[in-house]
Specification:
261 residues; globular; two-stranded antiparallel ribbon
């Protein structure tokens, strides 16, 4: 069936093998990738080919992403069908730039809520869930069309906590909306309600706002009556919750999400 799909879409098996054998499956920045990343790269590539989707595999430990472009990327005006790209970020900005601004904010909040749900759970079954939501994305003609977005999280071998995320973008029909948590083992589907999740605590919002105002950990600690160590711990928690690389990026992201002014 896979070979038939490739013939129908004018994709040769040689092209597929060439893509799967590129250097990103063997080496990155001089460090050999573990088998776990090879396996996930093949999974992401398979989604891109079989569903014509855009598949983004992000390594949250190294802050890098592998983007696999299925043929549907042409709808967005991206001339990258059946290609692969490596970026030094877990944010696929070229794709994000095509998402409607209102949907972008909602998407980030939904993803962070889902990330917190999975990362804070001590139940292994939590990784059986994925998030499915819908967004408007601008096509090559400037018209917004509905796309379905799914995100899966994975534990890395030998590592505690979430190590990888896989995002899938698919064109879809209709006026779908809402965000849903779907269990791949049971088929259960439930609505994700953002109000049920406090992305940042009130104390974390206060510290992040003071950080955005240029205050040091020492100064923040003095004003709040807590130690510098406690402030630094809060900052690390904020960076983790917002999936940012540093406090500067966390402040910028929090402002876009409306978590701080």
């Amino acid at each position: 069936m896979f070979a038939y799909f490739c013939r129908q879409n004018n994709i040769s098996m040689i092209e597929i093998n060439d893509i799967l054998n590129q250097k990103y499956l063997r080496q990155m920045d001089g460090v050999y990738i573990h088998d776990e990343e090879k396996r996930l790269c093949i999974i992401a590539q398979s989604y891109a080919v079989c569903e014509n989707s855009i598949a983004v595999l992000s390594n949250l430990r190294t802050n890098t992403s592998q983007i696999f472009y299925g043929r549907a990327c042409e709808i967005l005006g991206l001339d990258k069908a059946v290609t692969h790209q490596t970026i030094s970020s877990v944010w696929e900005e070229e794709i994000f730039s095509r998402i409607h601004p209102q949907d972008m904010k909602r998407q980030n909040l939904q993803e962070l809520a889902f990330f917190r749900m999975v990362s804070s759970s001590h139940v292994k079954d939590s990784f059986s869930w994925y998030l499915e939501h819908f967004m408007r994305m601008r096509d090559a003609n400037g018209k917004y069309r509905i796309w379905k977005h799914r995100i899966f999280y994975f534990l890395g071998d030998g590592h505690q906590g979430i190590s990888y995320s896989l995002c899938l973008y698919n064109i879809t029909a209709g006026d779908n909306e809402g965000a849903y948590l779907i269990n791949t083992m049971t088929g259960e589907k439930k609505v994700l309600v953002i109000e049920d999740y406090n992305i940042l605590s009130d104390r974390e919002k206060t510290i992040l706002k003071m950080t955005a105002d240029g205050k040091s950990s020492m100064r923040i600690g003095e004003e709040l009556g807590i130690s510098k160590h406690t402030v630094d711990r809060h900052r690390q928690n904020i960076i983790f919750k917002l999936q940012a690389n540093n406090t500067t990026e966390a402040c910028s992201k929090a402002k876009r999400l409306g978590l701080i002014n």
